[in-house]
Amino acid sequence: MGTSKGYGGPGSGLVPSWADDPAVPTSEASNGDGVDGGEAEPGGNPDATTAGSFQGARGNFTRFAKTGSDRALGSAMSGYVRTGTGGARQAARRMGTSRASAAGLLRLARDFQQLGATDALARFDLAALAGRPAVDAFAAIAEFVCPPGGSVDEAISRQAMFEAIGDLAELGVGSFESLSPTEMQEFFLSFVLHSIEGRVMADLCIKGITLPDDPAAVEAIQDQLHDFIEGCTRGVFSDELDRLPNLDDVQVKQVVEGIYEDAFELIAAAGEELRK
């Protein structure tokens, strides 16, 4: 699993450091289980009207952490989406900051294809970074797309950005302007996958789960979770990105919303298959 370790950015652990941070604002809605009830849209409030309890999903995830059982992982993921969040659409609505950040990255990928690297970076007043290493350019872009914030949702988005940069660093890519359109789209999808993983971990680990004492075992659990999320989502959305150069900003936002909703539906369905 690629993480931000390859980039040198924030570290990534199975239980995020902010999952039970008392400094996280308490204004976010609760779903009655003591967890963050959703994301605050710009100018709006979190939507948790159909959210249930994460207790069952958390129990199954603890069993998965102890045993590595695919069946327990499937039960945790399907229960998380179907019962905990209230369905794929509601799960996607929990990704407010990440959806906004993903839309910014997808607009960047579109402009990269339409206008070239320099003009795409000019949107962020970073045109001078076109010839610099891609990881450096994306680190600078992160300050615009997902700046530091105090909420769990903002932390998820920022962590996902640096993990995606870590994935890019592990590939040994060159300058930003040398990236292919496919690599730009892959970076966007990497961000989406890491942000979903971060949201799941925040929701299921905020009250703590029982983990093995062996760090290697913990890393294996994290890899298994990441591979599950990636395996049932990556590649499915390539067709939606084929028309990227022709999308306007509103359509980009709609594509991002659809990708998150479809991803959670696929995660739930794949989890149900593992339970059989």
Can you describe what's shown?
The longest helix is centred in the C-terminal third of the chain and has 27 residues, at 249-275. The protein is globular and about 50 Å long. The protein has eleven helices and no strands. Helix 2 (70-85) crosses helix 11, helix 6 packs antiparallel against helix 7 and helix 7 (152-171) packs across helix 8. With 276 residues, the protein is mainly α. Residues 1-6 and 10-50 have low confidence and may be disordered. It is 61% helix and 0% strand. It has helices at residues 55-67, 70-85, 88-93, 96-115, 117-122, 134-145, 152-171, 181-205, 215-231, 238-242, 249-275. It has one domain.
Order of SSEs: HHHHHHHHHHH
- How much of the residues is beta strand, in percent? under 5%
The overall pLDDT average reads 82
The rounded Rg comes to 18 Å
What fraction, in percent, of the residue positions are helical?
Answer: 55-70%
Kindly state the number of beta strands.
Answer: 0
Q: Which parts are unreliable, with pLDDT below 50 for 5 consecutive residues or more?
A: 1-6, 10-50
Shape: globular
Number of domains: 1
How many strands, which pairing sense, and closed or not: the largest β-sheet?
none
Number of helices: 11
Separation, N- and C-terminal Cα atoms:
26 Å
The computed structural class is mainly alpha
Summarize the structure.
The protein is mainly α and 276 residues long. The chain has one domain. The protein contains eleven helices and no strands.
